[in-house]
Specification:
Layout lengths: L2 H13 L2 H8 L3 H15 L4 E4 L2 E4 L1 H24 L7 E7 L4 H15 L3 E7 L2 H10 L4 E4 L9 E6 L2 E6 L13 E3 L3 H10 L8 E3 L5 H8 L2 E5 H9 L4 E2 L5 E3 L2 E5 L5 H17 L8
Parallel strand pairs: 3-4, 3-5, 8-9
Antiparallel strand pairs: 1-2, 5-13, 6-13, 7-10, 7-11, 7-12
């Protein structure tokens, strides 16, 4: 498939119009139309419904979107792998959830650049589902994830212990039974443990999954939510967030996930340094 056609499709989708996509790509509107028509002919389906107000995806366009994004990621990865800068003879693609970046993966990256000075690194910070998809597609070599998907070809190793604790933006918060409690979706195991601990709890008004971005929201609005200890600890230590008294703490381990795509002479040192970073990850002693 022509990569330019895929890029054009994604630009039209993002811009929500052929005119705006043309401006983004520095081509004429007719060029955009011709590319989309060619792509639709190749796929045998109409991808966009056009109107005076713009464009929207058809059912087939919505199905094609995930493949378009994946194929573009693979293309970018191929370009990255093949066109290494001068002075580098190999590359590794790594990733982690945003919650695991500051205290674990950042230190991991620093050590890797030191022990593998001729290796170029491509690091992704993303959601668990996206990281799993990139591993499956071969875009990533190793990822660090709290709730890994178990798929054929994946190797999984427990790398770090964490726990989910209930914290709030104000000291007097009533916890999960309060109206301003936010349910944060940290995976199926957390959902089951949460329902066992709070069997009579009604569904909260607000449900979120925004990873490391949520502490500021809790601080600004005085709300409460369960967060990984390693996200919450610095905020609790500084007095910006407060542990809700008499609330449970749920186990929340993190895992290294990898495939056999990367050469062992790169993969194994990278995993060893990840294990070392996990052992040395800071743990602030806060009362829970």
């Amino acid at each position: 498939m022509d990569v330019m056609l895929v890029k054009t499709f994604l630009n039209v989708l993002a811009a929500e119009s052929f005119v705006a996509a043309a401006e983004r790509m520095f081509v004429t509107q007719s060029a955009i139309s011709i590319r989309i028509q060619k792509l639709e002919r190749e796929l045998g389906q109409k991808l966009f419904n056009r109107s005076k107000s713009g464009v929207e995806l058809t059912v087939y366009g919505a199905k094609f979107e995930q493949y378009a994004r994946s194929s573009l990621q693979l293309w970018d990865q191929a370009v990255y792998q093949i066109s290494l800068p001068d002075g580098f003879d190999s590359s590794l693609s790594l990733g982690c959830e945003d919650a695991l970046w500051p205290e674990l993966s950042a230190n991991w990256m620093v050590e890797l650049t030191r022990i593998l000075p001729t290796t170029a690194f491509n690091f992704q910070v993303s959601t668990p589902s996206n990281l799993s998809s990139m591993l499956l597609l071969g875009v990533l070599d190793i990822a660090v994830i709290y709730n890994p998907e178990i798929r054929q070809g994946f190797r999984v190793e427990h790398i770090l212990d964490d726990r989910l604790i209930l914290v709030a933006g104000r000291k007097d918060h009533g916890g999960a039974t309060s109206d301003d409690y936010i349910f944060t979706n940290w995976g199926a195991e957390f959902e089951m443990a949460h329902s066992r601990w709070y069997p009579d709890l009604k569904p909260p008004q607000l449900m979120m999954q925004v990873g490391a971005a949520i502490p500021k929201f809790l601080i600004d609005h005085g709300k409460a939510a369960f967060l990984p200890y390693r996200i919450a600890d610095d905020y609790v230590a500084s007095g910006q967030l407060h542990v809700v008294k008499d609330s449970p703490a749920f186990p929340f381990p993190a895992y290294a996930v990898w495939t056999e795509n990367a050469p062992a002479e790169l993969r194994e040192p990278a995993l060893d340094k990840l294990r070392e970073a996990a052992r040395n990850a800071p743990w602030i002693d806060i009362e829970t």
